[in-house]
Design a protein that fits this description.
By secondary structure, this protein is α/β, with parallel strands linked by helices. The protein has 2 domains: 124 residues, Rossmann fold, CATH 3.40.50.2300; 67 residues, Arc Repressor Mutant, subunit A (Orthogonal Bundle). It is built from 11 helices and 6 strands. A 6-stranded parallel beta sheet has the order 2-1-3-4-5-6, sandwiched between helices. Helix 3 links the parallel strand 3 and strand 4.
Length: 225
Amino acid sequence: MIRVLLADDHLLLRQGTKALLATADDIEIVAESGEGGEVIEFIQRLKPDIILLDIRLQGMSGIEVARAIRGLMLDTKILILSGYHYEQYVRTLFAVGVHGYMLKDASGPELIASIRAVCRGETVLSAEISAHLVAKNHRFGLAANEELSDREREVLTQVAYGASNKEIAAVLNISIRTIETHVSNVMVKLRARSRTDAVNLAIQLGIIVLEYPSFNTGYKGTSNG
């Protein structure tokens, strides 16, 4: 049996998902909750095979819960089930270490198949989001992601958060002149016209992943968590 924990802040959606998964004879719902702290407690106590995790929860976001689960070094696999199409959420969560990202408009058979695939150790991604990412990567190319050094990505991430060269130099403990050189190199490699242009392109390509994604960029969709 695949032991599943449901984490969603909408009771009606949890009930509907439970009824759906009950049709699969190899899936067992061991617990459910819409509160982030309680979800983590259930994870530690019950050690389910998979958590079906929404991004919107009470008390903590799904991103925070996913990060906490990974920090506990448990074997529980994380499958995101969300109504959000935001590309930055997808990239951020995969960077944290989730095993799949499905949208809430997926069919019942698709969701059940995704749970089984994740349990087998596979990675799953909603076909709609996957198609979008492929199209975007084709448009911009992937060479830039390979060309930027780790330090250049660190600097660009700080730029994305709005830090000045002086502030970045203090955070990374290097000179302002070195920061200026890194920023210049990044703009050349990305063929960006400005710092803002470099940040936007880097986010679109997944070169940098911000802790708190902007709701004004990326792939947008519904708002029901």
